[in-house]
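User: I've been trying to design a sequence by hand for this structure and keep getting stuck. Would you show me what you'd pick, starting by listing the structure so we're on the same page?

Assistant: Good idea, let's start from the same input. This is the structure you sent:
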């Protein structure tokens, strides 16, 4: 499709606004803590919405609506699992991680936190966890760049190569310049845009198909099993989809939002805001795909693009049902979903390289100004590697993204969760948890045992490894004292 002027203008205005926010954040970035965690200054609203936006990538407006459109409500189990997992993460991890990182050397990254929490003088914990972050997140970044490229390619008729750079350039620019504050402030705008699109679109589709009763009758006429939550599923299949929720405990880009909150007092309000946003967004996503069944069955003459690629259901409904200016805003929501996640991933990779390699091993006496510029250079480096990986959209490496979520969830999830609730956890227990979780995910995925999503055995085995190995040793007095002080701080201020 050739670019329509209103859509193009809307995209340009949106991207310009994101870059402008990056330059505003630049003025507030004075040291590495500012660049990596925004100086721990995020209020509850920004903490909530940036955590949500960094989590939900292009799949929210493309992948999930397409799956619902093709198979009906049986594909919604993943949404239920994500909501449960996100809520438990806010409830058990968010506030405690905020105080634990502060009490353990004012840690700025997860590897930094692990190293301080478990008094790891060898640097092994820091190195292994930083390597896990770099490997999985570089692949994640490549996936995000491909998603952005495909949006530009289909919306504006660009070649894939041109779309690749166009989709990535703005995200790289504001992340490079403004760091964590830019990413968090833009995430807040992007989260607002996403919820606007996902509330408005299903309502307009309902009106276009004649209301609730007519829409449901049309969906039933197309295939009665569209309403069956158990259609084509098995017990293991449902558990596997629900298991996606376990991943939240170990996602570095989401956990960074908890670490950056201005205080523990902000967390409870942030949890309520974030969960409301998430439920509305996922509900809207399911509704777009579900109501789309009725619309395109009643209008087969415009169903061609969706028939060819069911992930275009949201894009096509926006283009058909809205005037070009509103459609441009709605399509910008897809770009917002892609950019919000990609920017967080770039920044976490940059943080790992700067804080956990450069500062920890190469330049311990580096000035804050030097570290900020090294952080910016690392954003650029990771982005260029990700673009190189994304240059061929058929590259097999992008298939790894399906279990990168599981890799983080199993390698880091149990370590993070248990480290903030159990004072007897040891360094060897943490090392065992990371290694067992990551290895289990890779092996389980390779052999596809029982058809069970690999995050579930990975999470269980990693948790058992942490517990059993920790029982073989004893945490130091200092570790226990810091844990108890942080826990007391949490309960006094939550």
């Amino acid at each position: 499709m050739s670019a329509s002027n209103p859509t193009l203008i809307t995209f340009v205005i949106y991207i310009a606004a994101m870059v402008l926010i990056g330059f505003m954040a630049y003025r507030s970035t004075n040291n590495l803590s500012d660049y990596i965690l925004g100086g721990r200054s995020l209020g509850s609203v920004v903490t909530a919405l940036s955590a949500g936006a960094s989590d939900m990538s292009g799949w929210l407006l493309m992948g999930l609506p397409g799956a619902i459109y093709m198979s009906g409500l049986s594909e919604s189990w993943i949404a239920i699992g994500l909501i449960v997992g996100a809520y438990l993460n806010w409830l058990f991890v968010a506030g405690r991680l905020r105080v634990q990182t502060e009490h353990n050397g004012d840690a700025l990254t997860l590897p930094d936190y692990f190293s301080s929490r478990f008094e790891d003088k060898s640097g092994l914990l820091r190195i292994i966890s930083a390597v896990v972050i770099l490997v999985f997140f570089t692949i994640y970044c490549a996936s995000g760049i491909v998603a952005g490229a495909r949006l530009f390619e289909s919306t504006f008729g660009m070649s894939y190569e041109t779309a690749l750079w166009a989709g990535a350039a703005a995200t790289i620019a504001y992340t490079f310049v403004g760091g964590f504050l830019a990413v968090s402030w833009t995430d807040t705008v992007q989260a607002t845009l996403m919820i606007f699109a996902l509330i408005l679109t299903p309502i307009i589709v309902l009106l276009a198909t004649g209301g609730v009763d007519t829409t449901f009758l049309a969906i039933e006429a197309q295939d009665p099993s569209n309403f069956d939550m158990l259609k084509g599923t098995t017990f293991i299949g449902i558990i596997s989809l629900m298991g996606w929720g376990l991943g939240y405990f170990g996602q570095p880009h989401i956990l960074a939002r908890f670490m950056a909150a201005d205080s523990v007092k902000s967390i409870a309000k942030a949890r309520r805001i974030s969960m409301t946003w998430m439920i509305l967004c996922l509900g809207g996503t399911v509704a777009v795909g579900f109501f789309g069944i009725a619309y395109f069955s009643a209008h087969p003459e415009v169903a061609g693009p969706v028939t060819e690629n069911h992930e275009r259901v949201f894009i096509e409904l926006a283009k058909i049902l809205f005037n070009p200016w509103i459609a441009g805003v709605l399509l910008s929501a897809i770009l917002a979903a892609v950019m919000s996640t990609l920017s967080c991933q770039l920044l976490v990779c940059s943080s790992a390289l700067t804080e956990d390699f450069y500062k920890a091993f190469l330049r311990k006496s580096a000035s804050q100004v030097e570290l900020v510029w090294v952080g910016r250079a690392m954003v650029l480096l990771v982005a260029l590697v990700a673009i190189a990986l994304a240059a061929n959209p058929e590259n097999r490496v992008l298939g790894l993204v399906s279990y990168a979520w599981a890799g983080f969830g199993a390698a880091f999830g149990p370590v993070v969760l248990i480290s903030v609730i159990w004072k007897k956890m040891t360094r060897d227990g943490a090392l065992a948890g990371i290694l067992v979780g990551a290895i289990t995910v890779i092996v389980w995925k390779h052999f596809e045992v029982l058809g069970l999503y690999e995050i579930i055995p990975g999470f269980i085995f990693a948790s058992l490894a942490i517990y059993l190995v920790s029982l073989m040793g004893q945490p130091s007095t200092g570790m226990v004292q810091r844990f108890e002080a942080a826990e007391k701080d949490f309960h006094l201020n939550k």
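That's my pick for every position. To get oriented when you compare it with your attempt: The CA atoms of residues 326 and 439 lie 47 Å apart. The chain has a mean pLDDT of 89.
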